[in-house]
Amino acid sequence: MSSACTILVVDDSPVNRQVLTRYLARMGYAVETADDGAQGLARITAGGIDLVCLDIEMPNLGGLEMLAAVRRRHSVADLPVIMTTARKGSADVVRALQMGANDYVTKPVDVEVLHARVEAHLRLRILSRMKDEFMRIASHDLKNPLAGVLGYTELLEGTVLPVASLPPAAAGRAAQIVAGVTDCARRMQRIIADF
Description:
five-stranded parallel beta sheet, single chain, alpha/beta
């Protein structure tokens, strides 16, 4: 998983960027850096970023402001953000998580903890994408046979049932059955549309 993933490290401290870059590269990730939130957003917009390690305190556009901008464009499943900051207070942690951070790691960074959290969030991202792809395929593949069922029920309602030589009670029951199938098929259409 690591070799195909690119992590963006956003931190105004050259030393912190270098340390995190070295750790993450040793773990097998491709690493890109930005020294403030504006550069970080530009890099994300360019594409190819799988996870962001984000400092809070930075000049110009700080980490929480960048996080808010990221969450306006990307869900927590689409682009995981791990706050990597010296701020250790529970209020800071809670605020970042409420704003959409996936995780929070304090500096100095425990490399093994960071590695475990990065791996966990990247696995969740992959699973989310697999789920989305499954839903897309499933909804597409369910639409075609369902359209056929609805087409046949319309054909039954429009041509076969009115001219059938069935006794009135049987014709009424057949019409109820076709109406029930049509109703179920239309409910399935709504469920598929909700996917």
